[in-house]
């Protein structure tokens, strides 16, 4: 099974954005050596703890610092952008780096509405609500597909690059659209697992073969916090629990340091909701993580998995991804 990395270029407390980007570059290079298939970066805005906002720019840098791993967006939040400009950006990336570039597309803005308006001035209600998303996806694929000289608007770079397009989702909507368009589908189960089972079932059942894909192909996201012991893995996980709680409380910040007892730092009702959102996780020693990953894979049977994990200490983050690769390489 192919296994990949989802990176938000986290900015830990006490570090700078420059350090964060250097950390992501090193993780990508190590991930390539550990057999990871893709290295995807996610678009978020107005968040002090996430440095992957200019996603296409960072993809270009990571691709230039690696040799063979696929590099892409997981994803570009299409309501924030004109499809034509996304096509030019990813057409440029494909022209520079060949068939190593992926384009995952999301329907959410990846931020608050004030920031969304700052991103896309003149935003219409359709763009704000995502109602134009299906047509935007179709338009974008046209700008990346076979060139047609009779068309009045063509993307250069873009045309004839055939950058693979994925649809991302955390609800049934994305599953239905991906099935209808015959596209590969990635589910954000690492923070919104509630609809995972039903979404995969709908996607597989309703899938219509296309020129891009002959059979359904689904990827699911899983958090991994792997360490030398169960106790250390659980401690590493407290960073993401704190970050997610702060986000839910409207107080996003840099990635917090881990704590010994999470119940001292997050009120019980909030922690319960956070743990439910993050339940698609494997946490602990290598043996524990292997057992938990095996259980998840046996239940949902994805075609691919993409691993993420917001870990404060860079060395511990590298080690967690190394342990996950060692496990997944033998699945």
Features:
alpha/beta
Tell me what you see in this structure:
This protein has 331 residues and is α/β, with parallel strands linked by helices. The chain is 44% helix and 15% strand. Helix 2 (55-64) packs parallel to helix 3, helix 9 packs across helix 10 (268-277) and helix 11 (286-300) crosses helix 12 (314-328). It starts with a strand and ends with a helix. The mean pLDDT is 95.
Quick synopsis:
The chain has 331 residues and is of the alpha/beta class. It is built from twelve helices and nine strands.
Can you lay out the helices and strands and say which pair or pack?
Layout: E1 2-7, H1 17-33, E2 38-41, H2 55-64, E3 70-77, H3 83-97, E4 101-106, H4 113-119, H5 125-129, H6 133-144, E5 165-169, H7 172-181, E6 185-187, H8 196-206, E7 218-226, H9 230-248, H10 268-277, E8 281-284, H11 286-300, E9 304-308, H12 314-328
Parallel strand pairs: 1-2, 1-9, 2-3, 3-4, 4-5, 5-6, 6-7, 7-8, 7-9
Helix pairs in contact: 1-12, 2-3, 3-6, 7-8, 9-10, 11-12
